[in-house]
Amino acid sequence: MVDIDMNWVGGRLGVRSGLGATELDALQRLPVIMREFDPGQYLLREGDRPKHCSCLKSGFVYRHKIVGDGGRQIVSVHVPGDFVDAQNIMLAQSDHNIQALTDAVMYLIPIDELIAVAMAHPAIIKALWRETLIEAAIMREWVANVGRRDARARTAHMLCEMAVRRETAGLGPRETFDLPMTQEQLGDALGLTAVHVNRTLKTLETDGLITRNKRSVTVANWRELRSVGDFTTNYLHLPGAPGLPTT
Questions:
Q1: CB 59 within 8 A of CB 100
Q2: Could you tell me which of 200, 165, 196 has the C-alpha nearest to residue 179?
Q3: How far is 132 from 182, CA to CA, in rounded Å?
Q4: Structure confidence at residue 210 (pLDDT)
Q5: By three-state DSSP, how is residue 126 classified?
Q6: Can you give the pLDDT at residue 246?
Q7: Contact 203/152 with Cβ under 8 angstroms?
Q8: Which is nearest to 63 in space by CA: 98, 16, 19?
Q9: pLDDT at residue 18 in the model
Q10: Which pLDDT does position 242 carry in this prediction?
Q11: For residues 163 and 171, what is the distance between their CA atoms, to the nearest angstrom?
């Protein structure tokens, strides 16, 4: 068992939901397993019975569904600080797969223990509920992105979201960041082929919105990239005032 990183607790649940010292102390006392995952390793497979609520300490993980013809649809990407499967706390089995996108370190909290602590502290219930609602909001935006925006807008929106979420997680400024996804993985998230993703990224680069060096992305014109992607931060429900990034 390990201690939960108080920066993680305070940054995710405390700041979002205003947990007090009593609630933070209760979370700190939970029995927690810290586990490392290699890129591509499964945290959870569809049909598994969840035993832990997983919280991402470092690295990136993603959720996906496999359809009848073997195609994969990536439905979310998670950054450090995220509760990766809080929605599984009350479900008998997982209806999707969770896989490591990069090297990742997870905190695994036994579900029964977390439920007991939450039931004793209503503010923790509220905080966990808020996490699942924010995740649902992000998923709604992803549905709108794939269903109603063209390839250029979809790709620009994904870049904006990853830039802001990485920045919020303390991984560096939104203007320059490493994109932890291959073009195939981007395609599976955006409903595009890898070839189409590559062509779209080149178009954004030619238009002066971004520059690339392998997986490193530099945003050359944030305002225009945001406009092309029809991007606001409202659906992310970030701490502080919601709305458009200010730069």
A1: yes
A2: 165
A3: 27
A4: 97
A5: helix
A6: 41
A7: yes
A8: 98
A9: 75
A10: 45
A11: 9
Q: Is residue 75 within 8 Å of 96, Cβ to Cβ?
A: yes
Q: At what angle do helices 183-190 and 194-206 cross, to 10 degrees?
A: 100
Tokens representing 209 are: 């919105």
Cβ contact 170:82 at 8 Å: no
Q: What is the pLDDT of residues 163-215, one digit of tens each?
A: 999 999 889 999 999 999 999 999 999 999 999 999 999 999 999 999 999 88
If you search the block for the tokens 């955006």, which residue do you land on? Answer: 190
Check: CB of residue 81 under 8 Å from CB of residue 12.
yes
Identify the helix (H) or strand (E) that includes residue 238: none
Instruction: Compute φ and ψ for 233, nearest 5 degrees.
Output: -95, 5
The parts of the chain modelled with pLDDT lower than 50 are 7, 10-11, 241-247
CA-based torsion, 106, 108, 114, 117: positive or negative: negative
How far apart (Å, rounded) are the C-alpha atoms in residues 64 and 83?
16
End-to-end CA distance of the chain: 43
What per-residue confidence (pLDDT) applies to 241? 44
Looking at the DSSP assignment, which residues form a beta bridge with residue 104? 37
CB 99 within 8 A of CB 211: no
- pLDDT of 119: 94
CA torsion, points 33, 36, 40, 46, in degrees to nearest 10? 0
pLDDT of residue 145: 98
